[in-house]
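The pair is quoted verbatim as follows:
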Amino acid sequence: MSMFKKLLIPAIVLVVLVGGLLIVNNLPKPEEENNQTSTERIQIYDFVKDDVTEIQIENKEGIMRFQYVTTQVEEETTKDDGTKETKLVEKKVWQAIEPANMRVNTSSIDSIAWNANTLKAYKLIEENPTDLALYGLDDPVKLTFKMKDGTNHVLYVGNETLSGGAYYAKKADEPKVYTIGSYEAEKFRQTKLQLMMKEFYDKEYVETDVAAISYTRKGEKVFDSNLDSDKWYLTYPIQAEARYENLYTIAGSLATASIEEYIEENTADLSKYGLANPPYIFEYTLDGKQYKLSLGSKSPSGGYYAMLNDDNLVFTIAESSFTFLDKPIEELVTSFIHLQNIKEVSKLVVTFDGRTDTTFIKVDPDDDDLSVYDFNGIVLTGEEDEDYVSAFKKYYQGAIGFYVNKIDLNAAPVLQNPDVTVIFTLNTGEEIKVELVPDEDGVYFYAFKNGQYTGMKVRKKQLDDETYKGLRVTRKQLDEKLAERNAEKAEGAE
């Protein structure tokens, strides 16, 4: 190939590329898209947001009216000394006038006012439209902003544009049709459910504000419980002290739960949400008020459909707040057969494995070194026998540490030939007797308290459980310690 041709071919290619670039750059852009990216926006409104006294929204659902009012709310502050105090302060909030019982998310209404007061359009679409239906403005969302000077600003918001990213809008007092940004338009087009509070309650609560809980699962009551003097107690299906941390978790979920998303109000068919016959129902007392929370089937988002107080307002709630729903009652409310504070005991008698141990106890509440423990005639004091007293306290934990593995209310065991008997004589003279009777399979003990079957069963292997200080383990350790003590005393006597 000649040198001339070698130079000519790149030159031709360059001319074609430049020509193509000029054509592309001079093609007419879609008018709407070109103007939406322009920095020059058309001012629609320019009013002072805090001069708005009322917002009215009319849409396919009906009319909503919100009034900007001054109210007193509780506010917690920290003083200079670090203590906290709660006092009433004045605050401007939005309240619903219509519908009257609507619990309003005041920040959402505030956002509507903020996005309207300096609203700008992307573009003027048509000066004098002949057919507003083209823009969805024949049946628009209508927003009326009432000002404190008595004037009104009225905005119509129609359909989204075909290219997306904007909506058609117009002012009520002029024919011009504009496009406004999707962000602002979607604020103006919110429904009642989108504008409602997502908090369950009108104030914040914590776990200890819950005083009683009843739980029903798949039509059967699982438990009744109440909080008394910082302890949770079961009143059904058994009468017993509950494991605090488990009830505390449930109380915390009820006190702090919030709504993920509102789904439907006044539905004619609750069954599509699993709420016609809810599989999970919590009835509880919070801050002196009664509540009922029903959980239905799983939602596509992974949470549960739910309803509060049978209000026929369906919403979703996070699954992470209710991970305990299907756990057996033994896990939810596992309790000890009988927990007894050693300070309240004057005498302890333990019988098992063919042996009876008797301990006389005198605890000094102010100075444990002065406490005295007489175990089978061997006197131990905190001041002289610290290691041995520690071993005895572990043995005592074994005597009170029988926890529930199973609840069996259908059983009718006979109290005879118990394998383990623990008798507490209190400082008041009251006597409490715990007896463990083997079941038919030899796996569990039936637990009796003061001669009555408690409905609770204990695994026999608890006696040998080293992790949880089983009674057989701790008694052996105490025997070894006391043998060591006797050996030391005998050596010292020589």
Remarks:
- The chain is about 20% helix and 40% strand.
- Confidence is low (pLDDT under 50) at residues 1-38.
- The first strand starts at residue 42 and ends at 43.
